[in-house]
Amino acid sequence: QVQLVESGGGLVEPGGSLRLSCLASERRFSVYAMGWYRQAPGNERELVEAMGGGSTKYADSVKGRFTISRDMNKNTVYLQMNSLKPEDTAVYYCNGDLSFAAVTSEGAGRFWGQGTQVTVSS
Question: How far apart are the C-alpha atoms of 95 and 48, rounded to whole Å?
Fold first, then answer.
């Protein structure tokens, strides 16, 4: 069982930046595809950005503003969020699985973090 622990959420003003981190317990972290999902109240969960096997996928709404990356030495995946907007307000979840197809599927990958709240407001 892979455990994922997010951190880095908080309150930020519109136009500001945050970096989310997700620490994975899996020692074979490098073989996992990883992604970030978000869910706002009253909305369905949506894929924000994912990476794995040389592929990346992102939501059109975050294009040019958010960037996913990973540090294999630290077993950590990041989501750098710039130019934040009020509509980015949501709980953000780290997600992982052995295939990119799984992480980006409608059902998402098997492993989830507990979520971290991001609030964009003045």
Answer: 11
